[in-house]
Amino acid sequence: MAMDWDAVATQVNIFSPAHDGVLARCFLAANCAFWGMSGLCYALDSVDKDSSLGRFLVRHKVQGLKAYLSASDYHTAFSLSSVNMLFWAYLSAIGGNMVWRQDGCYGWYTPVPVDAPFEWKRELACLLGCAVVIDFWFYWTHRIMHWKEPINLYALVHKIHHRYKTPAAVCATYAHPFEFVVGNLMGVALGPVLTNSHPYTAYGWFVLTLVSTCGSHSGYGFLGAEKHDEHHEFFDWNFGVGPVCDQLFGTSLPKVSRFFFSNFGVGPGL
Questions:
Q1: Which residues, at least 6 apart from 59, have a Cβ–Cβ distance to it below 8 Å?
Q2: What distance in Å separates the CA atoms of residue 237 and residue 59, rounded to the nearest whole number?
Q3: Predicted TM-score (pTM) of this structure
Q4: How many C-beta atoms surround the C-beta of residue 221 within 10 A?
Q5: Reduced to 3 states, what is the DSSP secondary structure of residue 242?
Q6: What is the per-residue pLDDT across 138-189, written as a single tens digit (0 to 9) for each?
Q7: Of 88, 105, 180, 241, which has the fewest Cβ atoms less than 10 A away?
Q8: CB 160 within 8 A of CB 201
Q9: Measured between alpha carbons, how far is residue 259 from residues 22, 66, 168 in Å?
Q10: Residues 261, 34: Cα–Cα separation, whole Å
């Protein structure tokens, strides 16, 4: 049977009028949020450290003055993050379009159309479902990425992301493509898919999660970086995007441990 190349071209073009445009807008929303937040945090990092604003920003860096990347580190992080956000995210959007928008999650449901009424009570429940899914999914995929046996997934995959002990916002998607797609992107996308949320909820969810993950990698306490900064600094703690799974499974870094390690280089459980 001859290949229908026109059909293939339509399938891989998520911007084609043949599709409902939901995955295209999710892709654009995620990229706008990621690059906008990364650009903002880069601007903050570029402020003169001797100025009054610069001194204020240094005080609010979780790891202080050491928490700034060099120009070469920024270039490296920017390069891989660009590949992930523009290439691998696009390929994932093609799959998401097929599974969610065209197939209704393998026939499980009829996807909510773009022009459907926005029922805010239902969508609040969908957002809650998205939050539960991402916390559970990211926590366990992230923790598995730290395994060193029977398969050393840390060395094979996750070590790339841990190159920076003092990450910046652009490092949020600086990861092995496998980790980026399976651990990061699926954690965000599964929520709207499993809850069959309204497309508008999905757009907002992608923006919220990308802004949040950039903030958690920014190094700035006022942008929510403290917990994940501690993970990059202390390695075996604070795996989740929220506090629930870390508290539930005993991996939330105790404050006393951080104090002793920061001040004396030792700490209980470290």
A1: none
A2: 23
A3: 0.90
A4: 13
A5: coil
A6: 999 999 999 888 889 999 999 999 898 888 999 999 999 999 999 999 999 9
A7: 105
A8: no
A9: 46, 18, 23
A10: 32
